[in-house]
Amino acid sequence: MPPFILPFEKPVTDLENKLHELEAFSKDQDIDVAHELERMKGKIETTRAQIYENLTSWQKVQVARHPERPYTMDYIENMTTDFVEIHGDRIHKDDRAIIGGFAKLDGQKVMIIGSQKGRDTKSNLACNFGCAYPEGYRKALRLMKMADKFNVPIVTLIDTPGAFPGLESEERHIAEAIAVNLREMFNLRVPIIVTIIGEGGSGGALGIGIGDRILILEHSYYSVISPEGCAAILFKDRAYADKSAEALKITAQHLIENKLADEIVPEPKGGAHTDHEAIATTLKKAILSHLSELKEQTTDKLLDERYSKFRAMGVFEE
Fold first, then answer.
1. Residue 157 has what DSSP assignment?
2. CB 43 within 8 A of CB 22
């Protein structure tokens, strides 16, 4: 399967094609062009860096949705050991759009819970394209309460367009399931670290998004609505998604400026999809650093600061 290329990555792709042609020519003709090859490789890296350092908000949304971007299971495989998945909400069924279980981060026991998307049609259907049903959020809450009972810190990874908005969700009370999670996560007496690893869409993200620290990957986004949805409402045309993305202020940089996130986790040049192991290593270091700080706090201080953190969001001065 050929690699997925984003529109703005074409200059890099063109240079890489020329590099492959030159390598093939060198091999066929037995000509030493090592110096030229190194020069072209340097130009590719410089071009890629320039592109990714100057992405628009809409381009960052496209990177966050890249089909080769690492998902929750990729992070679990690359940064944890001894993962034991726990299934089901004990009410309806097991929702594969949210997965979780006990694991270890460098020996530190954690409960890790995250949104999960698929890589192909079969896996996407199995996890409903990362859009959870009410049972997904009820499973997440069951796991979080289990972590609270055993005094194990909670790590959540968010990558969802939003909760599933269909009839089945409404029949099983999706709004109530998310609202209960919001309420209960404020009362959990263990540290909670939230990371947006891709898409952070609306209430579907908030359902596992209340924490003591909010981290966001460099090219992820967090929003009350998708840029396309916003464009359809405000401009009556989804073609204005790029304009909406800029107006919504949804990128990692905007979130830090507006005090909605605590840290931007840097991605490899070219995005997290270019090196799953590297981004997992970087994220693990960030999570462990924050966990170390939070474990020094008393439970009462942890709960007070978590509450104050979210109460302060949206407050501004003219």
1. E
2. no
Q: Are strands 192-201 and 221-223 parallel, antiparallel or unpaired?
A: parallel
- Tokens read off for 74: 């990729």
Q: In this structure, which amino acid lies at residue 101?
A: G
106, 292 contact by CB (below 8 A) = no
The string of pLDDT tens digits covering residues 77-119 is 999 999 999 999 999 999 999 999 999 999 999 999 999 999 9
CA contacts within 13 A on the Cβ side of 268: 14
Query: Is residue 156 within 8 Å of residue 193, measured between CB atoms?
Result: yes
Other beta carbons within 10 Å of 237: 11
Residue carrying the six token digits 């981060």: 105
Domain ranges of the chain: 7-54, 61-311
CB-based contacts of 152, cutoff 8 Å, min separation 6: 102, 109, 110, 111, 190
For tokens 């989804």, what's the residue? 238
Angle formed at CA 4 by CA 49 and CA 244, multiple of 5 degrees: 70
What CATH code would you report for 61-311? 3.90.226.10
What is the per-residue pLDDT for 314? 82
The token pair at 146 is: 């289990």
Question: Half-sphere exposure of residue 170, counting CA atoms within 13 Å on the CB side?
Answer: 3
232 burial via Cβ count (<10 Å: 0-12, 13-18, 19+): middle
- Name the least confident of 27-36, 108-117, 289-298: 27-36
Distance separating alpha carbons of residues 226 and 218, to the nearest angstrom: 18
| pLDDT for the residue numbered 130 | 93
70 torsion bin: left (phi>0), alpha (psi -120 to 50), beta (else): beta
pLDDT score at 75? 97
Q: CA angle, 139 as apex, 172 and 105 as ends, to 5°?
A: 155
